[in-house]
Design brief:
The structure is a homodimer. The first copy, chain A, is of the alpha/beta class. Chain A is 42% helix and 16% strand. Chain A has three domains: 6-49, no CATH class; 53-159 and 290-317, Rossmann fold; 161-289 and 322-327, Response regulator (Rossmann fold). In chain A, the strands form two sheets. Chain A has a six-stranded parallel β-sheet, sandwiched between helices. Chain A has a six-stranded mixed β-sheet with strand order 7-6-8-9-10-12, with helices on both faces.
C-alpha cells in the first residue's frame, strides 16, 4: 500500500497542498477550523510528516543537486516531483542540472554543486547499463534514481522492471490469452531484458509457451509496426510491448489488417505515459513505473545519508498495471 | 539568423560542450592546441561569450529560480535548457520549483527563493490567458517565459504563435493546396486563437477562402479524429492542426476512410514534439516553437534586469517550420 502524501491529506481535507503544508507545519495565517480539518485528515490517513527532513534543520545548506541526463524530462520530471514531495515543499531546495549526456559537463556541475555546499546529490538518468559513479568530495552523499553505478555501491532506486513484465503477463493470462508475444526495445538496455525476463517467468509459471521469441528492436512506433507485421503469421492473441510507443505501432498494424483490439489481440504497453497511452486507439493498458514514488524513495535515502545513516545497494519500487480498453478493461 | 551558441562552437571544434566552455573561460587543464581550435571556431562563428554573465561576478548569489507549472516538463525543460545555456554552464545555478498549478505553493516557493537571495526569477508556464503577476520583493527581477503577466509589465518571452500559424498556411499554399481547413485546441487558449489568426491572415493575403470555420475543441488525438470526421464532407486538400496530437488523430481518421496523406490531404501539426511528430504515420510536418531559444532569450533579459537594465513588454521568438512526409517533403 502506498504511503499517504501531503497531496492525499490536502485532497481529503478539501484544501490546497500549500494550505495543508502550512497547517501541518504550524505556519502562515489559517483559520483554526482549517488547521483542525487538515490535522484530522492527516491522522485518518496515517500521514507522517517527514521527521528526517525536520531533523536537518541545523547547520546545513538545505539544498540538494539533481543531476539528470534526460533532456526531454520524460523520466526526470516525475522523479523530481516525488523528490520535492519528500524533501518538504521549499524546506530543501533543488538545484536542477542537465548534463545532456556529456561527462565533462557533468563533472563541472558536480564541482559547482560541491562549491555550493549542497547537502547531497540525486543522480537521475535513463538506464542502458550501470553508469560510472559520480565522484563527489567526502561528506556529500549520492543517491541514484532510474540508474545505478557500475561499482554496485549505490544506493540506487529503480523501478521493478522484472516485476512489471510479470504483471503484464499475469494480466493477459488472467483474461484468458494463451498465445502471448513480446516486442520490446534494444537488447542492450537492461530494462528491456528485465521486462522480458519477468514476462517469460510468468508464462513459465503458468505452463504457457511464449508465442515466438522476444523481438528486440527499438523504442519506436515504427519498430512496433514492423515487428507486428512479422508476428502476424504466429497468430498471437495478445502482445506485451516494452513501451507505449511500440504498442501504438503494433495497434496501427493490427488495425491495418483488420484485427480487432482487444477482441482478436489484446495489447499491453509499458510506461503509462499519458499522452501516448490515453491518445491511442483504443487507450492502452500499460505498466506504470510509479516514477514519483521512485523520486520519493530516492529522496528518503538521501535524507538518511545526510543524517549519517546511509543506505546501500539497489532498491526497487513496484510497478502497477493500469487497465484500459486495449486489454478488455 | 540564430546567434551561435557554445554548442555550435563545440561542434565546429570537434570537442564537447564542457571542453569548449573551459577553453573559452581559460579554465581547466587543456592542451594549447585544443584551446586554439576552440578559439578559432568561436571567432569564425561570431560567438560572443556572455559578458553580462561575466559582469555579474561581484556581490551576487549566482542563483536564479525557475518556477514552472508544467508538471510534464514538456515545455519547461527545453526552456530550462536554453536558460542554462545563456546563464553559462554552472556559473549561475538554477533552482527549479514546480508549483503544480497551486497558487499557494507558488507563493511559498517565491518566499523561499527570496530568502535564498536569488538574483532573479524566471516564471515559465503553459499559457491560457495572462496570469497574475508574481509578487517578489524589490530588487528581484522577474522574466516570464511561455506565459505573461496580466498587468502587461513583463518582460515576457513568448513564441510567435501567430507567425507559426502563418508559416503553416504559407507552406500549404506553396505546395498548391487551396482547400485548407484548421482544427485546434480550446478557444479559451490564447495560443489557439493566435495560431488561427495567423493562419487566416495568410489565406486572406493569398485570396484563398478557408475550408470551413476554425474548429476549436481539445488538445487531444480524440478531438482530431472526431473533427476530421466532421470535416470530410468539405473535401479539404490540407488540414492545419493546432498541435501534433490533433494531427495524429486527424491522420487516423483519414487513413480509416482511405484518404492518402499527403497525396489527398496534406497535414501540418504544431509543437514539433519529437515522439509525436516522428512516430506518426507518416511523420508530421510541424511548426517548432524553438523553446530553447525562448529560454535563452528569457535568461538574457533576466541577466539584463539583474545588471539594472530591465526589459519591458512582450517579446516573441519566431517559430520555424519543419517539413516532413505529411505535407509532401
Amino acid at each position: 500500500m502506498r504511503r499517504a502524501t501531503i497531496r492525499d491529506v490536502a485532497a481529503a481535507a478539501g484544501v490546497s497542498i500549500g494550505t495543508a503544508s502550512k497547517a501541518l507545519n504550524g505556519q502562515g495565517k489559517l483559520r483554526a477550523e482549517t488547521r483542525e480539518r487538515v490535522a484530522a485528515a492527516a491522522q485518518e490517513l496515517g500521514f507522517a510528516p517527514n521527521t528526517l527532513a525536520q531533523a536537518l534543520l541545523a547547520g546545513r545548506s538545505y539544498t540538494v543537486g539533481l543531476i539528470t541526463t534526460d533532456s526531454f524530462g520524460r523520466f526526470s520530471i516525475p522523479v523530481m516531483l516525488g523528490a520535492e514531495d519528500a524533501l518538504g515543499i521549499g524546506q530543501i531546495s533543488v538545484f536542477m542540472c542537465d548534463t545532456r549526456d556529456d561527462p565533462e559537463r557533468e563533472e563541472r556541475y558536480v564541482e559547482m554543486l560541491a562549491a555550493r555546499r549542497v547537502d547531497g546529490l540525486i543522480v537521475a538518468g535513463r538506464r542502458i547499463e550501470p553508469r560510472a559513479p559520480v565522484r563527489t568530495g567526502p561528506g556529500i552523499p549520492v543517491v541514484y534514481a532510474m540508474t545505478q553505478p557500475a561499482n554496485g555501491h549505490g544506493p540506487a532506486v529503480l523501478p521493478d522492471d522484472e516485476g512489471g513484465g510479470r504483471l503484464a503477463a499475469e494480466h493477459l493470462l488472467a483474461i484468458g490469452r494463451r498465445r502471448i508475444a513480446h516486442i520490446t526495445g534494444p537488447e542492450r538496455f537492461l530494462n528491456a531484458r528485465l521486462r522480458a525476463r519477468g514476462f517469460a517467468a510468468a508464462l513459465l509459471a503458468a505452463g504457457v509457451e511464449p508465442c515466438g521469441h522476444t523481438r528486440y528492436g527499438e523504442w519506436t512506433e515504427r519498430w512496433g509496426r514492423e515487428a507486428a507485421g512479422q508476428l502476424l503469421a504466429d497468430r498471437p492473441d495478445a502482445i506485451f510491448c516494452g513501451s507505449d510507443q511500440i504498442a501504438r505501432g503494433v495497434a496501427d498494424t493490427l488495425r491495418a489488417v483488420g484485427r480487432r483490439i482487444p477482441e482478436d489481440v489484446a495489447l499491453v504497453g509499458f510506461d503509462n505515459w499519458a499522452p501516448m497511452a490515453l491518445g491511442a486507439l483504443p487507450p492502452l493498458t500499460s505498466v506504470d513505473m510509479c516514477l514519483e514514488e521512485v523520486g520519493r524513495v530516492a529522496a528518503g535515502y538521501l535524507l538518511a545519508g545526510i543524517s549519517g545513516d546511509p543506505a546501500h545497494g539497489v532498491h526497487t519500487v513496484p510497478c502497477r498495471l493500469v487497465v484500459r480498453e486495449s486489454s478488455g478493461g
